[in-house]
Design the sequence.
């Protein structure tokens, strides 16, 4: 409950999704997405990212169960941007090293 207001403020963002998964599972997820943000001094320059939206959340757990996949699927469905198609994956292994987002 202590994190509810904070999570609501960042809901629908990569950071919000990452925090929600971390709080639920205790490990940092690996998130890949198709989007990008950039600008160009040249008119009609190429857009960053992929033309079709997509989101993939990969979670590495020491001993995953089918329930973990279901929990991750439910959480990502609720915390992702509404328009974003997504996939989830839960595998056995050590969690990824945490990297600082800029």
Sequence:
């Amino acid at each position: 409950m202590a994190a509810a207001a904070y999570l609501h403020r960042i809901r629908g963002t990569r950071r919000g999704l990452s925090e929600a998964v971390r709080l639920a599972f205790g490990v940092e997820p690996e998130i890949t997405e198709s989007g990008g943000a950039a600008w160009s001094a040249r008119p009609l320059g190429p857009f960053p990212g992929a033309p079709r939206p997509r989101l993939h959340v990969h979670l590495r757990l020491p001993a995953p169960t089918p329930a973990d996949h279901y929990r991750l699927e439910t959480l990502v469905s609720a915390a992702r941007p509404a328009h974003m198609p997504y996939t989830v994956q839960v595998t056995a292994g050590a969690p990824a090293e945490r990297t600082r987002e800029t």
